[in-house]
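Before the break, one more example. Copy the sequence into your notebook; we will annotate it together after we see the structure.
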Amino acid sequence: MDQTDPAGPPPDRDDAAFPAHRAPRCRGLAELDAEVSGCRACPRLVAWREEVAAHPRAAYRGEEYWGRPVPGFGPSDAALAVVGLAPAAHGGNRTGRMFTGDASGDVLFAALHAVGLASRPTATHRGDGLELYGVRITAPVHCAPPQNRPTPAERRTCSPWLASELALLGPGLRAVVALGGFGWQALLPVLAEAGRPLPRPRPAFGHGVHLTLPATDRLPPLHVLGCYHPSQRNTFTGVLTFDMLVELLARAAGLAGLGDGGAGRPGGPDREGPEGDQGAP
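Here is what the structure looks like once it is written out:
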């Protein structure tokens, strides 16, 4: 994935090659999150996120917007990952945390709490005390895009961050939920490039679609599930109901070995497998 010349200087943060160069070199999620937050590789997205931050909505006037790429959120030993479309202009781009401060996040975090994967049903800002148990939320594009539509080129530029994030979760990662068709289309190539054998032809996105990717020499089987995005358009029209989302997340948690609650939750189930693995298959 790193296509830079090893003998030449490393690319700057505003170079399109920066994510491919830097992401594989991160040794942990804290380092990755810091590098993501400083990325300026996509000029259109940089200009938009900073324009939005400079002109907040009336409801948020006086708040200091994050105005940068939004890193993933959740524990470094998560057995379940949720991958959904980029941060909202006045949501994650404002609060600096995935799905925090927008209507989609209101639905998602309430559902995670109902399943036992979040400490509270609401997410308002960084530092609000919210904790996730056994699940990490991230995005295939880390900047808020105009009209919520990243370009294919922007998705490709950002994909090394997602690849490294999933790789750093390691063999303890047992399931991934892709929110929406964009998340599905972004996730599958990343998994294929990581050496995960995918069925041919690649399955189309749909709510409840479930792939079980076989184990590799280094990694256990991985469950991949499709889920309608909890956007206002989907929830207002009933395409995705709260019960549908809770049912799918509960199913994903079970496949990840999290049972009825998250690993690390006080009183939650133990993820220790029979061989000392993090999470039973």
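The longest strand covers residues 222-227. Residues 192 and 198 are 6 Å apart (CA to CA). Try to locate both features in your own notes.
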